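job 3f2a | input accepted
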Amino acid sequence: MPLSFTHRPARAAARVAFAIGLMATSAWAAPFHLHLLKSSPAANATVAAAPDSIRLSFSQTPELKVTSVTVKGPASASVALAPLASADSATVVAAVKGKMSPGTYTVVWRTMAKDGHVARGTFAFTVAPAKR
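job 3f2a | predicted structure (132 res):
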């Protein structure tokens, strides 16, 4: 027996409702994952002097034990950092131990929230040459 046309609109409506629900749930859940809110130095900033620390502020408390921060300078040279410390519940700080000459630096970070969600990212900043 062939399907009647009355079933097709109901199926289509159910599919549309499901798709809308899925999109709404995805959009609603996304802000709850840990992500980087701000950094110091800021992404793409040019600073007059080399920073004494790298500060990363997150949307949630990062698990410090599994958080890593590395800084690469010109020619991909690694910059020595002190062990990470918590500045507050959502901010980690790495004191800069190595020398930072003028040039562009890339910060690479990786962390995890208490829910197990891993977040990672990179950003760059530039140390300007000294003014004469």
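job 3f2a | The domain at 34-127 is CATH 2.60.40.1220 (Immunoglobulin-like).
job 3f2a | closed
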